[in-house]
Structures are given as structure tokens and as C-alpha cells.
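hey all, quick one before standup. I had two proteins in the batch that finished overnight and I want to keep them in one place so we stop losing track of which output belongs to which input. First protein below, input sequence then C-alpha cells straight from the run.
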Amino acid sequence: MNTLIDKIKKLKKEKKAVILAHYYQDPSIQDIADYVGDSLGLSQNAKGTDADVIVFAGVHFMAETAKILNPQKRVFIPDLNAGCSLSDSCPPDLFKKFKEEHPNHLVISYINCSAEIKALTDIVCTSANALKIVESVPFETPIIFAPDKNLGHYINQKTGRNMLLWEGSCIVHEAFSIDKLINLYKEYPGTEIVAHPESEEHILKISNFIGSTSEMIRYVKNSPKSTFIIATEVGILHKMTEEVPNKTLIPAPALEDNTCACSECKFMKLNTLEKLYDCLLNETNEIFISDELREKALIPIDRMLSLS
């Protein structure tokens, strides 16, 4: 394994490449990445890098976003099949029709969507800044929020708004079992439940803290509590454990039993060190976006970044 890591580091230097990895990636990829973060942090880092090549260890829409922000750079993803159930739940043709049916609405889209959806959007947001983005819009302005209905519902409750929600969702964040979670909580009385806002309402209702991946890590780090149940993709536990090695972190249980009894994104886990090495070596799985689409998709992203 060390030999493969050494080869990746050597190639990265030769090709003036930077590796960006999401918190949900395999720990081995997180460890070799130049930057590990959530959607907002990765978007900002992608825009700020001076590397010639970006290898985005995440899912397809993330690599697309990096390309939108860096048209002059070559952007690669270790596995082109690393998609996103949430992004796939919002087909551009259907969303375009939905938008046309509500012409007076401003469109705010969660960054977990395709470039085509971003191009149909007024402002992009992430889970970290969704509340801030929505609150920047006058209360009387009608809003379409897409594609995540759970995040949209959470923001509606926080703001008192009645945004029109696209019926999309993430299978990873809808995989938690409320019954198993309550039973687990009984085993660890006094523990705190920390959840991502993409989770369903019944999970959020019993959570002590709700926030983006980076906010969850920060909360656990700063909390005086010692034990936490973490309701998001299990990959986050790697960085979280590094930040709080003396605290007990327990993944929230999934509806279906699997190898880790947790919720794991099969798309995120398609990326491996071997695939990362191959795409650097052979310059495969490059992300291409037409200039017209890129320019349209860039507008709502820049609006988000200016507000963040």
C-alpha cells in the first residue's frame, strides 16, 4: 500500500496536481488528499488552487463543480460511475418544466445537483450555508428549493417560510432506522445525537445538533460531551476521530443490516486508491462541460460564494 501511495505522491508532483476529497471518501483517500472537506469548503478550495490538475475524490457533481469554477484546469474523478442518488432524483428536463410552471419563483438549488440543474438555478447553496442563502432573499419572494426535500423542509421550519420543494432525497440519509437509533440511545444514556439536515424529519426531531459535515465535526470537537451518535455517511468518522481521539463516536444504525450496520454511500466508495492512481497515470475519467453550460452554471455558484 505504501508503494502505491508513494507512486500517487510522485505523479501528483510531476503533473502539478491537487487531490480534493470529501469526508465520505475511504480513509486511505482522505489521508493522501491535499484537502478534505464538505461541499462548500471543497468548492472554495477548487476555485483557489493553483494546480494544473484537480483530481476530485468525491462524486460526479462535485467534480463538475470544480470544472465549472476552473475551466482552464483539467479535472478528473477516479471513477466516472461515482454518481449521487440525490442529484439523480432531479432530472433536468422535469425540473425545467417544474420551474416553468412557477415562473415567479426564485430558484435555490442545493449544490448536490448536476450542472444542468445549476444552470436552471438563481443561487446555489450547501448544507453549511443554506440557511444564510435563503435568509438573504426577501421573505415575500416565493422560492423553489431543489433537489433535497429534507433539507428544504428543515430550512422551512427554521425560517418560517413555505418554499416549494422538489421531491428529491439522498438514499444514504434516508437509510437511518428511528427504532434502532432510539434503542441505541437507550444503551448510551446521556449521549448526543448529531445529524445532517439531509436526514428525515423524525431523525432531526430527536437530534441534539443538526449541521453540515464540517459543522458536525466542529460541534463534536467543542462539545463537553464524550459520546455521540453520528447520523450521516460513516466516512465522516475518520476525520472526526482524528479531531476527538478521546471521545466515543457511534454511527447511527441503518434500516438494513450490512457490514458496518451504518449508512454508507456506495457511490462515494467506488473511488479507490488504485483508481486514483490509474486516473492520474493515464489521465482518464476527465470531466468535460460545454462553455455554454459552464457559464450558465457558474452564475449561481458565484452568487453563493459571494454570500459565503
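OK second protein, same deal, sequence then C-alpha cells:
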Amino acid sequence: MNSLLELRGVSKSYGSILVIDDLSFSLKKGEALGVIGPNGAGKTTMFNLVAGNVRPDAGRVVLEGRDVTSLPPSVRCRAGIGRSYQVPHPFSGMTVFENVMVGATFGAGHSERDGIAVAVRALERTGLMAKANRLSGSLTLLDRKRLELARALATEPTLLLLDEIAGGLTEHEVHELVDSIREIRAEGTSIIWIEHIVHALLAVVDRLIVINFGKLLTEGNPAQVMASPEVQEVYMGIAVE
């Protein structure tokens, strides 16, 4: 079995508003998939459906051949789905190390003793080891983003969901973050990355999908997808003649 994740005909409504509309796609093991679309297209809702924060009204979420549609986030996390959030919300009164230990113990289910090595490894992978004893509330935006990434990595994911993790960063900071994500990907972690900073995505991902009004608009080679007149019109507002 080559697919790590499959969404099969997934739909989600909030009242009369259809946010995800019969969405299907798959992710191969070891693949990095980029996701773009205009604001309100349903991208974060799609992540919530994958991670288990919300349940679909129709369709199935399948992880390594196992139907996880009805499973809660905690079970999916221990099954290998880790995620970061668009707006970092560290436990500001705790140190960086303590924040990452939350991922290792409550996320991955390690004992406190075993979780230490996992947390240290996550800090090393994200360049935060030197700041392990700082209060997380004192971090810069870049380091808060790194902390989001480290806490997700401490859950030991086979699939890492990144939700606009480069948003709000300077160009130099984006490049630093991209380097970290490349290294994580090179170690074998599969990635789905929602991002508006397209050049960051193009530096990492193998494939790109475009979501509009909760539906899959197109997918394929990143350069070809970005060159599509339909994508340029929907995503960048360039009129198709």
C-alpha cells in the first residue's frame, strides 16, 4: 500500500454553508503536498477533518488503509498525524522545553522519562535547543513558529500538517523555516502544507493541489499548476482571456 492518507468524497457544512464539497485526494508515503486556495476556500477545515477536530458529514478519512473518520484527535495523533496551527499558541508561562514535552507525553504518549529524549530531538531539529529554558511567551514570532513545529514533531508524526507556518515572517525568516522543513522532509516525514507564500511551498513540495469553495480545482506538478490560467484567475485574480 503506497498511500499514507486518503480523503474520499469528504464534505462538511456549517448550517447552510457548504465548506468542504465532495473533496478527494491522496498522499503517498514520503511525499510533500502543497495546498493553496483563496481565503475561505476550506483549507483549514480540511486540516481539521484530517486531524479529527471536526467530523465530516459525508465521506471517509483513511490513514494507512485504516478508516479513522470517527476517531478523536488524540487517537489520530498517536496513529501518526501531527499538526501546527496558523496562529502559534504556546503555553506562555512554560519554557520552550516544557511546551515540547507536552507533545512528547500527551501527544505521543511517552512517559516523562522517555519523552525527554524525544523533546530534545525535536528541539534540535528546529534549532531551538539553545532556547530550551526560555519562557515561550518571550519568543520572537519566528521562534514561536519553530516551537509550533517542534511540539508537532515531538508527537513523532508520520504525517505532518503545516497550516500557514510561514505567515507573518520576513523573507529571511521564511528561508530559514524552509530549510528546517526540508530537513524534516528529508528524514522521511510526509507533509501537507497549506501556505500563501507560494515560493516557500515550491521550494519543498512535490505536488500542489488547489481548493476553491471546498472543492478540488486542480492538482499536479507545482510549476504547471501555478501556470494554469484557471488557477491564476481564482488564486491571483488574473483574468483569463
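Flagging for whoever picks this up: DSSP finds nine helices and ten strands in the chain. The mean pLDDT is 94.
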